Hints:
This protein is an all-beta fold. The chain has strands at 2-7, 14-19, 33-36, 43-46.
Amino acid sequence: MATFIYRCPVTGYKVQGLVADNPAEKPNTQLYEPVTCTVCTRIHLVNPKTGKVAGEDGR
Length: 59
């Protein structure tokens, strides 16, 4: 299991996520994984390598 940090787009809080594979070993940096947010309980698509959430506008 690999951990990573992302920002919940609903609450704005930083959240720790978990994925089964190590994101550093995956060659595709645009790969998004579904992650259940422990803060808002919704599912977000997150790139574990970068911590970016799909649809994030950068604000």
